[in-house]
Inverse folding.
């Protein structure tokens, strides 16, 4: 057997293997989670905690991880009216998806904002319009908030949907 033939065969096999690995890696890329998948993940995370004090602490911790919004965006145009706290949602668009940055001036409100951004940021307007926030009832958040905070929560969701319906960016 010719040595070049064997070397060529091994080279061919090596190239095929490399292509297979490259294709396999591309199919293994992390896919964008749907709103429902994110909501289920949040439900799973909250059900780990037994008491509402623990859940509030987790909600506050989520809010602390939220990057602070630049003062340039803390304007009335981005403010969510209906919240007890000062809350701002700033929309933008990336590859046909809405991306939200937001902030709040109170710990619990900031935690709620973080959960809302996690669910609805990087989603298509169509998916946002079709979504609901029933997962917040499932984790018990709506029954453990004051009526005024529940109103604020609903105002946040309505504003997010308004941005989606009106293609605001």
């Amino acid at each position: 057997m010719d040595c070049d033939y064997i070397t060529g065969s091994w080279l061919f096999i090596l190239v095929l293997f490399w292509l297979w690995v490259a294709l396999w890696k591309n199919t293994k890329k992390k896919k964008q989670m749907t709103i429902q998948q994110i909501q289920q993940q949040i439900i799973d995370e909250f059900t780990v905690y037994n008491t509402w004090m623990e859940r509030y602490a987790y909600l506050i911790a989520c809010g602390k991880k939220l990057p602070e919004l630049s003062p340039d965006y803390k304007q009335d145009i981005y403010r969510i009216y209906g919240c007890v706290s000062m809350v701002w949602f700033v929309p933008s668009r990336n590859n046909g998806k809405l991306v939200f940055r937001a902030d709040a001036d109170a710990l619990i409100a900031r935690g709620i904002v973080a959960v809302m951004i996690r669910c609805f940021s990087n989603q298509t307007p169509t998916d946002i319009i079709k979504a609901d926030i029933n997962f917040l009832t499932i984790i018990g958040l709506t029954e453990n908030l004051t009526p005024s905070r529940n109103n604020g929560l609903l105002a946040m969701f309505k504003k997010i949907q308004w941005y989606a319906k009106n293609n605001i960016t």
